[in-house]
Amino acid sequence: MAAISASAPHREPNLLMRLARRPTAFVGLLIILTIAVLSILAPWIAPYSPIKLSVANRLNGPSLEHFFGTDDMGRDVFTRVLYSGRTSLTVAVAVVTLASILGVVLGLVSGFFRKADAPISRLIDAMMAFPDILLAIALVAALGPSATNVVIALGLVYAPRLARVVRASTLVVRELPYVEAARALAVPTHKILTRHVLRNVASPLLVQATFIFSSSILAEAGLSFLGVGISPDIPTWGTMISVGRQYLDAAPWIMWFPGGAIVITVLSLQLVGDGLRDLLDPRLAKDI
After folding, report:
1. Spacing of C-alpha 226 from chain mean position
2. Domain parsing of the chain, residue ranges
3. Does domain 22-41+66-279 fall into CATH 1.10.3720.10?
């Protein structure tokens, strides 16, 4: 009699493993992780100080001594690109965190409570009627230029995007049978929102947060470029580009490298976001 061997239960691969199977998304993930590690380790791997002036070495081209050349003050561009990455990524993480908190709260309340839907929806529509960068400039001008105020301004600007995504998903989830059953069993509302509704809106929220991360980097660089963002004393990619445009003919590398860092970072985040969207959207996952 043939022995029947019990097969091990099949385990569904986690999100990271599924993402790794998509070449473009995996490459984007590796790039953004590399940039994050280099930025975090900047104090230990950067060859020079990001703020120390060396006028005698100003506008030197790329060389073995200065990989990305020097700027108008003789500061090492490679070092400043690394430190600028710390600033940009930190601001972007803070913006995504603030926007997620505000967006989730507004979206859940608007989608779950019918009476609150109309006023919150009108507020969201009013905020989204303005272009993102113009609204951010207005908020930073009102609050004052600083890293904290940039985070607050961009968080307020991008919160409506997340709120609309969460609201749309909540409107669907609140009508599902298990939510109705929880209501019938007198489960507290806050537990229904956190245990049942929020878990089901986590996937679109994660995808949208990835795109907001890249948008925050671009917006922060734009504000710094215009001189209304973070203080010029703190190295940022936008500030470096703003300074470099004055020397575009004599020393184009001052703009090339921070600009390239922005392009590579944003592109890698977009690749990761596209991969997450394809994996987490049931309509698209069928084709993968």
Report:
1. 21
2. 22-41+66-279
3. yes
